[in-house]
Design goal:
This protein is mostly helical. 44% of the residues lie in helices and 10% in strands. It has a two-stranded antiparallel sheet with strand order 1-4.
Length: 500
């Protein structure tokens, strides 16, 4: 029964989160957005105290069920592990916990967040890794299928589906997503939960609380026949059948061991109450492979929570992502433009885990992953496919980590993420080649005005003049500028956003 309940709940979370990343309309967020906000690292970075406390209490009561039910990357590994078991049954063995290596990954993750070098944290964070896999490898296929359905529906005068652009991913994005998927698949196929119990920083943090869990997998030594089936089916490699011990720091409460035991020697219940009723010491059945160092673990826990106060110290430049696909190149900005709601470059760089959920729902494909090595995969704004519409708040609606704060339409339209900069040497109006004025006509903030290059001659060629106090940095001018390959007007970001 435990295994069946776990599978049902895990399927709900896995399917829900997958659809959340695939949905380019943003409509599913109203129903499924809470699934993203209950992810552990994102809740910590967002200072979501309710979720943090709930996850700690959940782990203290039931053990690490977060890893086998709520975490989508954990469920994905279970799927690969299940396929591996189909190829070869009873493939797992017991192994001692590699706490030193696990702890090193955790400490490096914390340090990378503290110093603003979030690349390592983004690569190791389970929810972020899952998001990159879905957005980069699966979403293009999903959108292509949607477009096929839209074409068919149009033939029957139905508009239940609508066409949207399928953006080809850049090699760095595809490479990181593909390598992540392959590594996880191989590890899970061969050894089950190797990633969760050797690399994952979230798993390491939860393992501290799981040690004291109220409900546990326990042995009934009188019924055990030492057949080793429990150990051979334990994806976490945490069951020592010879000594009738379970390492609760690594156990993800999947229920496979109970299902495989033919003698009813394993049960999931309250360890202390059972020991008290049977006169057994409370330490019976616990793992003694590693000594308990509560001082060190407590320090690491406090350090992890302190990452929310870290400040990034490096600026970044963006090369424009996919601009060459439309024969228009993005300028090399001195300061990147980040989404409204990010508040500042430092806030985004400190809290963003690079899950790319905001990019998956951006209707105009304005948000792209940064190509800067210091802040790889975090969202920046590029305007080769569209501009940031003042009324759109999708990215702030879906962000689970607090990197992009929630905004309403009025707040969004009054935030200055940057300001437009004109290059007169490239502007066809300023050069007298043609009367253009595209940027002035289409500026939603009316921050651009065409003025004569010679103030004393009204017939002289006109050049765009930007009112920086009114410009919100939406990028409409840059997107609509006909000059190629570099627009004659581009947006420079603000390190700290302003309000009009």
């Amino acid at each position: 029964m435990l295994r069946k309940i776990r599978i049902i709940l895990a399927a709900v979370f896995f399917i829900g989160l997958t659809l959340l990343f695939l949905d380019f309309t943003g409509t599913l967020h109203a129903w499924l957005g809470w699934m993203a906000k209950v992810q552990a690292l994102e809740a910590v970075l967002a200072l979501n105290a309710i979720v943090i406390v709930a996850l700690v209490v959940l782990t203290l009561i039931f053990g690490r069920i977060y890893c086998s039910v709520i975490c989508p990357l954990g469920v994905m590994q279970d799927l690969f592990g299940w396929m591996g078991k189909k190829a070869k049954k009873n493939r797992y063995t017991y192994s001692k916990a590699k706490n030193v290596l696990w702890g090193i990954f955790f400490v490096l993750t914390v340090i990378s967040l503290l110093i603003g070098f979030g690349n390592l944290a983004q690569l190791l964070a389970p929810y972020s890794a899952f998001g990159r896999i879905i957005v980069n490898l699966l979403q293009p296929i999903y959108i292509a299928g949607n477009n096929v359905l839209a074409t068919i529906a149009e033939r029957y005068d139905s508009y239940a589906f609508y066409h949207t652009d399928v953006l080809l991913r850049t090699l760095p994005r595809l490479g990181i997503a593909a390598v992540t998927l392959v590594v996880l698949a191989v590890l899970a196929w061969r050894n089950g939960r190797t990633y969760c119990n050797t690399i994952c920083p979230v798993g390491y943090l939860l393992s501290f609380f799981a040690r004291f869990s109220w409900m546990r997998i326990r042995f009934d030594a009188d019924k055990c026949k030492n057949c080793s089936l429990c150990t051979k089916n334990c994806k976490a490699s945490c069951i020592d059948f010879k000594n009738h011990k379970v390492d609760y720091t690594r156990c993800v409460v999947c229920g496979d061991c109970i299902e495989s035991c033919k003698f009813g020697a394993l049960r999931y219940d309250n360890q202390r109450l059972h020991n008290k009723a049977n006169g057994v010491s409370e330490n019976s059945g616990t793992s003694e492979d590693q000594p308990l160092d509560t001082t060190k673990r407590s320090f690491l826990l406090a350090t992890a929570l302190a990452t929310t106060a870290a400040l990034a110290q490096e600026k970044k430049k963006v090369d424009g992502g996919l601009a060459e696909l439309v024969d228009k190149k993005a300028p090399e900005r001195q300061t990147p433009v980040v989404p409204p709601g990010a508040q500042s470059l430092k806030n985004l760089q400190t809290r963003c885990t690079g899950c790319q959920l905001c990019m998956s729902v951006c209707p105009n494909h304005v948000l792209r992953p940064s190509t800067d090595l210091l802040h790889l995969m975090q969202p920046v704004m590029e305007f080769d496919y569209g501009y940031c519409r003042p009324e759109c708040t999708r990215c702030s609606d879906v962000c689970p980590s607090g990197a992009i704060q929630p905004l309403d339409e009025v707040e969004k339209s009054s935030i200055q993420t940057g300001h437009a900069v004109v290059s007169p040497d490239h502007c066809i109006s300023a050069l007298g080649e043609s009367e253009c004025g595209n940027c002035a006509r289409h500026c939603p903030a009316q921050a651009i005005e065409m003025v004569p290059t010679d103030p004393d001659d009204d017939l002289s060629p006109s050049v765009p003049a930007v009112n920086e106090e009114a410009c919100i940095g939406c990028g409409a001018c840059e997107y609509l500028c006909p000059v190629r390959p570099i627009s004659a007007i581009h947006v420079e970001g603000h390190e700290v956003h302003r309000s009009i």
